[in-house]
Write a structure and sequence with these properties.
The chain is an alpha+beta fold. It contains three helices and three strands. It is 38% helix and 12% strand. Helix 2 packs antiparallel against helix 3. The protein is elongated and about 70 Å long.
């Protein structure tokens, strides 16, 4: 059962249609303004992957080239990519938590850089 997408030439919005039978006549109309002045779009294709192949893809060393474990932004990009690759909707909470963790890591890093090299050095004994 294909899904066809069209762009309305009158209102400019996209409409999607699930076609149950390709042999039956199909006359699409814009779902927003009702116009029949539509142009068919080339749709993206969805490919189903097994969990094993998704995890294998994420573990591929060639896809880890830009991952820097010492850079919070790099880790955040990888975590978001991991979430998308797993194919599950993790929600905006997931992305917000990652962004908040990056901000906290950057603040912590800035605080450590400002305090480094200043003041006295103490060993573990406190002397």
């Amino acid at each position: 059962m294909p899904i066809y997408e069209f762009r309305c030439q009158d209102c400019g919005r996209k409409s999607s249609f699930l076609v149950l039978s390709i042999s039956s006549p199909f006359e699409p109309r814009c779902q927003h303004c009702g116009s029949s002045n539509l142009t068919r779009l080339v749709s993206r294709v969805g490919i189903l992957k097994s969990e094993e192949s998704r995890l294998g893809s994420l573990a591929d060393p060639t896809k880890l080239g830009d991952l820097d474990e010492n850079d919070p932004k790099s880790l955040a990009r990888w975590m978001k990519k991991f979430g998308r690759e797993m194919g599950e909707e993790l929600g905006s909470d997931f992305e917000e938590e990652i962004d908040r963790a990056v901000e906290e890591a950057e603040k912590s890093k800035e605080g450590n850089e400002e305090g480094s090299g200043e003041g006295e050095n103490f060993d573990d004994s406190g002397l």
